[in-house]
Amino acid sequence: MYDATEIALRINQLLKEKQLSQKDMLEKCDLSKNAISSMLSRGSMLRADNLARIADYLDCSIDYLMGRNHTSSKILSLSDDLISKYNSLPEDGKAEITHMINYKYEQLQKKRKETSSPILPTLLNDSQDMLA
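User: That's the sequence. What structure does it adopt?
Assistant: Structure tokens below.
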């Protein structure tokens, strides 16, 4: 089934990556100061609502914390949402969206070559602006 130790290690890894403290997370999530250490030492599993609060705090999915997927990002749920919306469009709407994406992608590729900056953060910000 699910290993509490692995979940705790994944939580601690995310805290480290995001430069957050375990103490602050536990306080903000209204959990005991021993919650993570109990998972590590005794294999105690947190309740689902507590895992959900931690996932929200760390901006990841519960599935990631539990090891059910390998990306901590919520991009996957965004992708699923966008795919669903795209598929519900009429064909001319799909063509327009495809054209917009291709145009924006080409612009970002040119910009990337010029500046050698990462494309994903810019693409995500621009995509969110376009959808708003």
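The chain has a mean pLDDT of 82.
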